[in-house]
Structure formats: C-alpha cells, structure tokens
Amino acid sequence: MNGTTDSALGEVTYTRVFDAPRELVWACLTDPAHLTHFWGPTGVSTPIENITLDLRPGGVFETIMVNDADGSQYPSRGVFTEIVPPERLAWTEPNLGLVSTSTLVDLGDGRTEVRIHQTNVPAHFLAPEAQAGFRTSLDKFADYLATLVAA
Fold first, then answer.
1. 69 to each of 39, 43, 72, 143, how far by Cα in Å?
2. What is the DSSP letter of 80?
3. Is 116 in contact with 101 (CB distance < 8 Å)?
4. pLDDT tens digits for 66-80?
C-alpha cells in the first residue's frame, strides 16, 4: 500500500491460533521461500523476487504484492526494530508510521497463538473491508501451514 495523509490513526490487534508449532510459524514469517505462499490478502500474490528480508534490527522487510486480476502492484517497506526468535518480530513502516509487533505464543500442544498488534494505523487500514482483507491473509497462512504440518 502507498503512503497516506490520513489524519486519524488507530490501533488494532489480530489474534489467531495456528495448528503448527511455534518454530515452524516463526520460520514461515521470516523466510521469503515461505512468505511467497501466503503474504497478502486473497486475490493478491507476492512473488518471491518481490520479497526482501534482512532479519536483523535495522534490516529491511520489503514486499511488492501483485493483484492477481489486474496486475496492480502494492509495495510496502518496513524496518525491523525487534527480533526475538521465535517469540517476537516487530517493524515500523517509515512511509506510514505504522508499527507492527507479532508475538508468537507456544500453546504447548503443537499450536501457536499469533498476536499482531499495530499502532499508528492509517484510517483506511481500519476500515472493515481492509481488516477483512487482512484476515484473509491469515486464512492463507493457516492453509499454507496445514500443508507443511501434513507433509
């Protein structure tokens, strides 16, 4: 998504339990070879050549999502601020000011709870349609994890 001048900034938390061990969930969130399979909402793909991930504080996380129907591109750029394997991953998006922190909780039974807390969220990302789209990316992630766990 491109930068915005929205004056209303908000906060949102997404929580999802995945049927996969925490180490696998962490690996999928930090490796472009996995990210390419699920990054972005339904109807959008993120080819591996469109993913840059330098997993260290100060390292960049860049993606260009591509609309499957019309080829529109949606670049994003984050800078990692915190990396605590396999518990927490945080970055800021300098163009938006958005801060995203993902916390992975080992539920002890082969499942992992992921809490994604975002602050300084532009108003258009808070719209119900945008939040529903974000949730479809979590659905894609769950589906992808299921293929890895079953293998």
1. 16, 7, 8, 21
2. E
3. yes
4. 999 999 999 999 999
